[in-house]
Amino acid sequence: ADQEATHDEL
Amino acid sequence: MNAFRLLADLTHLLSIIILLVKIRTTKSCAGISLKTQDLYVLVFISRYLDLFTRPLSLYNTPFKLVFLATSITIVYYMRYHKVVKQTYNKDSDTFKHYFLILPCAVLAFFINPKFTFIEVLWSFSIYLEAVAILPQLVLLQSSSNIDNLTGNYVFMLGAYRALYLLNWIYRFFAEDVVRWIPWIAGLVQTALYADFFYYYIKSWRNNERLKLP
Questions:
Q1: In chain B, whose CA is at the least distance from the CA of A9?
Q2: CB B130 within 8 A of CB B43
Q3: What CA–CA distance (Å, rounded) separates B148 from B181?
Q4: ipTM
Q5: How far does the CA of residue A7 sit from the closest CA of chain B (Å)?
Q6: Contacts (Cβ under 8 Å, ≥6 apart) of B28
Q7: Rounded to an integer, what distance in angstroms lies between the CA atom of residue B152 and that of residue B14?
């Protein structure tokens, strides 16, 4: 599981 | 994208529409906390700065613009509209919401995905959103009679983040995505609505007026 910093949620 | 996420965003949008309808049709913001609305403007501004830095998204970008525009409009109405601002319960909207901002900022400074300006502000907005409803809930407790639109507004607002929790559970199992910051903040945010949900559903089932102790 990755803690991606890109925010694809609102 | 999954059904929980779509339903969550639509519920969030619906809550804002309900509030705008209430203010525009009744020309009144009685029972609405201006402090909570101020905090939401801060939440959206600090969260959606990436509108300028990241590629636009067909789904997210319109939502971000609508959330920013509506939250600013609501604060404008409550502060400057000559009729609406008279109906603001200034003396009961007493929560010291500035005390919420600093701890969220400090927490964001230390706990964030990446120590960059955008990410720290994004974390700040996630933490602030979790507690932004407090002034509104406190105001409801002191309100003698809560009008239906206000009750529905707060319910939808709480329901949207609860749906996001389902979305995160789905994404954890389906896409193996882990996001501790919004997860924990979202849990705290939804937990704050727990007693409101209880009294709201009770009043809805007994078909009686919503009343918080």
A1: B60
A2: no
A3: 33
A4: 0.85
A5: 9
A6: B22, B84, B87
A7: 10
